[in-house]
Amino acid sequence: MFRNFFKSFWSRALKLSYCAIFLIAAFVVPHVIWPKMDVKTNTVNTDAAGGQLTVIYIELENSSYLNLKDPDIACEMKGSSGTTIKKASKTIYEALPAGTKRIFTMVEMGTIPEQATRFTCYLGSISVEWGVT
Questions:
Q1: Per-residue pLDDT, 28
Q2: pTM surpassing 0.85?
Q3: Which residue from 120, 67, 68, 72 is spatially nearest to 92, judged by alpha carbons?
Q4: Whole-angstrom Cα distance, residue 21 to residue 52?
Q5: DSSP bridge partners of 111
Q6: CA–CA dist 18, 66 (Å, integer)
Q7: At residue 28, what are phi and psi to the nearest 5 degrees?
Q8: How many Å apart are CA 84 and CA 76, to the nearest integer?
């Protein structure tokens, strides 16, 4: 009787151990394989003169240990109610090395819709620079 009890106990304990190892691996492995990318948009200045939206100045800071490239600057043009009327984006084909700040200037974002009164510009996406170039 005790033999059967301990046999089933160790069988359940082994199954629970496997489940615990699987759960730990499921949460830890993605962070090892795909490390956290930390890119901050410190300052953004825009100009809406002449019916064209221009990002005059945008400062990006790469706080990760990965070299990044091709930042995509995105802007939302909103009406007075706050509704987004138009979204525009532009990819800047330049590198953003690990641990550096880069300033990008005079990025043309296109024409402004007639009813747009507010503009929000931000980093839309960025790519990881894999391998040696």
A1: 64
A2: no
A3: 72
A4: 56
A5: 52
A6: 33
A7: -95, -45
A8: 6
Strands (E), the chain: 39-47, 52-62, 68-78, 84-91, 95-96, 101-111, 118-128
Q: Cα–Cα distance between 85 and 88 in angstroms, integer?
A: 10
> Taking the mean position of all CA atoms in its chain, how far away is CA 100?
17
Amino acid at 122: Y
Q: Are 44 and 55 in contact (CB under 8 A)?
A: yes
* Gap between the Cα atoms of 119 and 79, Å rounded: 9
What distance in Å separates the CA atoms of residue 83 and residue 122, rounded to the nearest whole number?
17
pLDDT for position 86: 93
> How crowded is residue 67: how many other Cβ atoms within 10 Å of its Cβ?
18
- Return the structure tokens found at 48: 């809406």
Segment 45-70, tens digit of pLDDT: 778 888 888 888 888 888 887 888 99
**Both tokens assigned to 51:** 């019916």
